[in-house]
Structures are given as structure tokens and as C-alpha cells.
Amino acid sequence: GENVEQHPSTLSVQEGDSAVIKCTYSDSASNYFPWYKQELGKRPQLIIDIRSNVGEKKDQRIAVTLNKTAKHFSLHITETQPEDSAVYFCAAGYNFNKFYFGSGTKLNVKP
Amino acid sequence: EAGVTQFPSHSVIEKGQTVTLRCDPISGHDNLYWYRRVMGKEIKFLLHFVKESKQDESGMPNNRFLAERTGGTYSTLKVQPAELEDSGVYFCATSIGGKTQYFGPGTRLLVL
Which of B42, B55, B106 sits opposite A103 (nearest CB)? Predict the structure, then answer.
């Protein structure tokens, strides 16, 4: 089955700096890659996603890149703000079926 | 639009007891998924309903877990008897046509 690895497990950045979270997957059949943000005590929320026919997608300060050949994808957050502090999960799926998640990255943005 | 709701938010039970978790999907969402996150680890898939039918239950750990979705609306996940290793946060997620999955707030289960 699919295996998703996520790094780093914790990330601390200064407000205004960029943050990058990386994930790798094992199953070349995976074609959908969502990213979820979970703030403390709240539900995971989808922040951005990418399909395998696209190499990059951007939404304001958030971008995701996908390298199908290398089977890795990354989340980039620019100009980080304290409200970006949360746990971020990457996931891989096939045709929107079950997702395989990474183990999460706890991002701390220091004011 | 109301989001996915789960009940209870927390449950503390003793080993050997039974617990039933409930998930109410966003109205009209035909796909319903159960996931579990054990302390500090990844969120793991348990099973997937399409309406009232089990589409994929490959993630169910063992036969102590029973999921139902009668009528294709809300779903329940029963653990009987509960073991220590069942502790974790149980998430429900729902979608229309298997597309974007919207998560509930989770049920935090602690088995003592």
C-alpha cells in the first residue's frame, strides 16, 4: 500500500520567514495530494491541494509543488504569521478515495 | 452550512468496555470516511462508506471495530471490547462524490 513520509516533525520559524514542509510517497498511482492544517483543538482543514497533472499550485502565501518522478511534494508558506502556527498534514490519495497521511509537522511561528 | 459533527468530543472508558462514536455528515455528502490518529503518529484510514455501503474497510484493525451507516446518513463506529491500544483521536470526514474531504472535530478516546 501507499506510504507517506513527512519532514520535519517540528519546525520553528521567525514571523515573516518562509516555511517548507516536505513529503514523499511510495505509490506512483497516487494522483491527488491535499494538505490539511489543524490548529490546536480544532478540526483538520484543507488549505491547498494538487493533482498529479499539475506541477505547482499557489494560493496567496501558500504554494504546493509536486515532483511525480521523484514522488515528493512540498508545502511552502511565505511571510509566515503567528496564526500559521498549527500542525500540518500532507496526504496522498488515488481518485479521491482514502487518503494516506504523513505524521504531521508542528509549525511554530515566533512573533 | 453546518460542518461535519462528531459525538462525543471526548470519551474515557476502561479496558473491556464498549464505546460508540457517532458522525453526522454535511447534508448531501454521500461519502463518509473514518480515520484514527494514535498519539503523535499519522492519521490512518479505517473505512469508507458510499451512502450506506462499505466501499473499503481495509483499514479496520480487527473485528472489535464495527461501523455502520444505516440509511446513508449518520454513521457509528463501535469498539467492543475496547483495548488500551484503541486510544487515539477518531476523525470522520465526508465528501460529495468522493471529492474534497471535510473533517469533523474528532472524538478523543482514552482507554484505561
Answer: B42
